[in-house]
## 1
Amino acid sequence: MSLVAATPTSVRPNTQPFRPAGNPSEMFAGCPELVGTPFNYARETEIYGEGETAEFVYRIVSGAVRTCKILADGRRQINAFHLAGDLFGFEPGEAHRLTAEAIADTKVLLFSRRSVQDLANRNVEAARRLWNSTLQNLEDAEDHMLLLGRRTALERVAAFLLTIEKRLGGNRCVELPMSRRDMADYLGLTIETVSRSMTQLQSKRAIALSGARHLVLDARLINKCLDD
Amino acid sequence: MSLVAATPTSVRPNTQPFRPAGNPSEMFAGCPELVGTPFNYARETEIYGEGETAEFVYRIVSGAVRTCKILADGRRQINAFHLAGDLFGFEPGEAHRLTAEAIADTKVLLFSRRSVQDLANRNVEAARRLWNSTLQNLEDAEDHMLLLGRRTALERVAAFLLTIEKRLGGNRCVELPMSRRDMADYLGLTIETVSRSMTQLQSKRAIALSGARHLVLDARLINKCLDD
DNA sequence: CGGGTGATTGAGCCCGCTCAACTCTCGTGG
DNA sequence: CCACGAGAGTTGAGCGGGCTCAATCACCCG
């Protein structure tokens, strides 16, 4: 679910280690009856809201999605970003526990929750893949709890950049799909602190920014920045 | 996995809402071949370490367990507390991603990871229960990320006390199984801040402490404390 | 060229951390 | 019975990292 997840797409070489049975792009392989309905969401529109009945499971074809929780006073915590190839929208109960919104214009494939459940009940292999996918999400959540509970602002931003670079192909070049506000709400910081941390990394030559969204990073120098 | 999970035991009435198929105490019902081997862990001993090969899945009979991650410099984040009835030790890969330690003297039932996997491959119903159990853990992790990323110290301690009271039977009376250090490392705070928050709640009559581990709480007054 | 949005930078403050002293409890032994 | 020590918890004083509030800058689109 979150940044650590493998996100192979058809247009990008998969530089991730092989994930047995947890690979979203193979999730419904050999299940021709589960083809998925294409659908589009515009930038900054809600896909589903917290508390709504969970009707669909989603697989991203292109674009990016955030899932988050929002407190009554407006404080927001983004739990995960989902990129092309990722699956999201599973729920243990009938209702969605998170809100999902498109960060950019996003194409998805819809699968009815019921049909996915039915498939899992019939097909042991599919059930195992769904389970492993959920376990992968849990693992990512565990890493994120460590980040939110015990890491400094600079460590959070550095870890975020390293992880998303890996997800986007690992060629040191990153086109951030999300705003500073989204990064801040994912990392448990304010936009100002995110910005200052980025500036700090840039002044140490660990990253090079060209525009707010495009950057080139040096993993070795980023890690060196954390040692002082 | 964490504090929101239902934890019915045979000696305590279940005051939780019914959780279809996710109930740990029924997890292996109807599977007499999966009986589990009793085992004991003394207080403050390691059950398994991060990175070790995952051989077993554990179900707690009595006692309490924490699972955590530790950084090289000693910073620790506890992901979850497990009480009687809880299942823990699932892993998506071959290796444990967390360290598990007994908080108190703890009796568990061991199930070999392989036999659990085999059961899930044969028995669709068991697979569904395991999947739902993992989804429940993920849901708890999502709640905890909001707490760690966006809540104040007082809110964290208040939420923790309310949740653990519910898990321990919901009769307003709590015998904390863990130390202040464990609470702090779960809530992303220091022991001093946890202590000060408890004192603050006590001065508002929202909780009554008798000894560090025993307390009676008033849910309404706790929520009122958060409004100023 | 403006207007609008998002990002950066600056100044000052505050919540939670650090460091340290003190208290409480409990177990052990004279 | 008290003395003592060890470990856990509480309290206090002061600091500092990240937040708040505000101004400025950069980049789009018209």
Note: DSSP finds six helices and eleven strands in chain A.
## 2
Amino acid sequence: MGRMPELPEVETVRRELDPWLTRRTIVRARRADAPAGPKYAHLERADGQRIEAVTRRGKFLLLPLSGGDELVIHLGMTGIVSYTKPAGHLRVVVQLSGKRKSTLYFRDVRRFGRFLVLPRGDRGLLPSLRQMGPEPLSEAFDAASFHAALTSSSAIKTSLLSQRPVAGLGNIYIDEALWRARIHPLTPAKKISRNKAAQLRDVIVEVLLASIAAQGTTINDYRTVDGQVGAFVEQLDAYGHDGDPCSRCGRTISKIVVGARGTHFCPSCQRR
DNA sequence: CTCCCGTCCTGTGGGC
DNA sequence: TGCCCACAGGACGGGA
């Protein structure tokens, strides 16, 4: 257990979807084995619209459509997009124009994911997207503004989970970045010094780039679109390593609960 | 406004 | 061996 598509996994999926879906027309998009509701809203609006691009914002995939709408996909915990029909837990089916790979399937065992259509830029159903911080791999993610965004009194781990100081980080990469920057996960965000914030910014970029290069992290459910697994799991130093010796100092990695999330850190390298 | 906590969802794995 | 239940967590909504 314990895998979630975070920025590197979603970016890997985006790169695979882009050549497949861009310029294809959606013939028909419908819910399958899924309840009606905001997570699967307005799919029929996509019918007849062409997919103009496959973009990403944080952990959301955003597909602008030719009619002025936008297809929004969030993989949640267990969401998988494929062109082969899954065995079960099929939530959405999209018929595409053309003959090759012309059916898109969205499978999501736990239904934490979303697959919906909205007028482009309408964030009424997506408040986190509205308040999301800068993309970590963009120029906007600089040390000074990152430090300025760390205003919360809550733990840095919790603050980063909110997506507000920076977009796209989840449980795995937050633990990895805090380990690399030697910051205790319970440190109040606003107590992070300017220098530490700059260091944290740099290791966030490093760990995300390294994971993208490895096509993400596979622990259990995550697969790339063509079913491959991500190799970054081999480079994890903190997440899932509780009980193991710290690869830097040898002390045993601890696991605690922060914001209802399993949190892994080295009690020796990462002092409060 | 911020912060905190409950809720959703179901396969897996650890314990007995 | 087989059964049971705690566990995993991203985003969101509501209450303080």
Note: Chain A has two domains: 7-129, 143-265.
